[in-house]
Design goal:
Layout lengths: L2 E11 L8 E17 L3 E8 L11 H19 L9 E7 L10 H16 L6 H16 L7 H6 L2 E6 L4 E5 L5 E8 L5 H6 L7 H20 L2 H7 L6 H4 L6 H11 L3 E4 L6 E6 L1 H15 L6 E7 L6 E4 L2
Parallel strand pairs: 3-4
Antiparallel strand pairs: 1-2, 1-11, 2-4, 2-5, 5-6, 7-9, 7-10, 8-9
The protein binds L-homoserine.
The site of L-homoserine (HSE) has 12 residues, from α5.
Length: 320
């Protein structure tokens, strides 16, 4: 097999209380990536549709993540001497349906998609944890930090929890059957690196206690499919109070969405997108309508999405 088409989902990181550790994958939107294995060494990006991304390969997340994988593959080949060293390269075509800088994991989709696809084209030499590790290198380029809370759900699907970064230890969480998500993406630019820089490096013990209570209870709520407990746990007392000022009408959005029945929500990743979780498709659609009502009078372009949770993560199909 020489070429495959990959579908890489959007993701929501943090999920209110789980800064840098919790994330989930959406069914919609998805990036499409065509990846071809070639005998010409090196990685070439031949087409980017839907976004203007850096031409400089060192700043392109797909390039960086794939190069990291390729260097590990070549080390592996050297080590496993029985395999004759072959020249290997890749050609990439990216169709970006997830807007860069939207806060719903655009860079993660590119990075996760290419490493997942390359692994298949190479005959699956790497496991899921290694693929996440490679995709995190893409995130390092995009945001200055190799966080995993977007790339893990993009690759694994569903809801994921990073228990530890060193060593990397990631686990999947239960996805309650009726969990849906509404997203509003105000078309303003917030760079993840800037949104991280404004955060405090030290936090109060009282805030930490509240936050870890919420994370533990959120995980319990997900397993017990207790939507009331999930709702009460969607509270972030550490990051959101600082980042909220970057997003127009953030608190109005939250209040009005909860009034119509949302379980709760917050900033998606580092923003500017805002997410709300709901029990059931019907409520999620009403919540998305409320998001539209709050934003339509503002002089800000925006997009909204309503999606179930994506349980599968990156998907692929053979093209050659
Ligand atoms: N956890 C990261 C942050 C996600 O909030 O900075 C960035 O998408």
């Amino acid at each position: 097999m020489k070429g495959i088409k990959i579908f890489a989902p959007a993701t929501v990181a943090n999920l209110a209380c789980g800064f840098d550790v919790i994330g989930l994958a959406l069914d919609f939107p998805k990036d499409e990536i065509f990846l071809y294995k070639s005998n010409n060494p090196g990685i070439r990006i031949n087409r980017i549709d839907g976004a203007s991304l850096p031409n400089d390969p060192k700043k392109n997340v797909a390039f960086v993540a794939l190069q990291f994988l390729l260097s590990k593959y070549q080390q592996k080949q050297k080590f496993e001497r029985f395999e004759r060293k072959k020249e290997i390269g890749f050609e990439i075509e990216l169709i970006k349906n997830i807007h860069p800088g939207s806060g719903i994991g655009s860079s993660a989709a590119s990075a996760a998609g290419v490493v997942f696809g390359a692994n298949i084209l190479l005959g699956n030499p790497f496991n899921t944890r290694q693929l996440i590790r490679f995709a995190m290198e893409g995130e390092r380029v995009a945001s200055g930090t190799a966080h995993a809370d977007n790339v893990a759900p993009a690759i694994m699907g569903g809801l994921t929890l990073v228990r530890s970064y060193k060593p990397l230890d990631i686990t999947r969480l239960n996805v309650p059957n009726e969990l849906w998500i509404s997203i509003i993406h105000p078309q303003i630019e917030i760079r993840t690196s800037d949104a991280r820089e404004i955060l405090k490096q030290k936090i109060l013990m009282t805030d930490a206690i509240r936050q870890w209570g919420n994370i533990g209870a959120l995980v319990a709520g997900l397993y017990q499919e207790d939507y009331g407990l999930i709702s009460r746990s969607l509270e972030d007392v550490i990051v959101e109070p600082i980042r909220a000022m970057l997003i127009p009408s953030f608190y109005e959005l939250k209040i009005k969405c909860k009034e119509i029945g949302a379980l709760g929500g917050g900033i998606s990743g580092s923003g500017p997108s805002v997410f709300m979780l709901s029990k059931g498709n019907h409520t999620a659609k009403k919540v998305t309508e409320v998001m539209n009502l709050v934003y339509s009078p503002l002089k800000v372009d925006y997009k909204t999405y309503t999606s179930p949770i994506n349980r599968k993560g990156v998907k692929w199909s053979k093209i050659i």
